[in-house]
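User: I'm preparing a small set of examples for a lab meeting where we compare how different chains pack in three dimensions. I only have the primary sequence for this one, and I'd like the structure in token form so I can line it up with the others. Please keep the answer compact; I'll paste it straight into my notes.
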Amino acid sequence: MRNGSTGTCLSPEYRNLATDDHETPVLRPVVWMGNAKRSVQAFPRGAQKLIGDELQLIQFGGMPKDAKPFKGVGSGVFEIALR
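Assistant: Understood. Below is the structure token output for the 83-residue chain.
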């Protein structure tokens, strides 16, 4: 997983999130609730990669298809549910 990534190896879809060619996208922090991080680390590697990619997209201001606002917690909190 790429939690804490510095953004030095961004794929094109992440690089395009900057509003200006000269502006570097801002990396928002990931805050894990309860045992969520431990639970994700127990997933198969393929699922960890998918969740890591989606977390990184959210960190750079995008919205992956598997994410939705997590109601009742606060603004800017998302839940990722893989199918």
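A couple of notes for your slides: The CA atoms of residues 26 and 60 lie 6 Å apart. The chain is about 30% helix and 5% strand.

User: Perfect, thanks.
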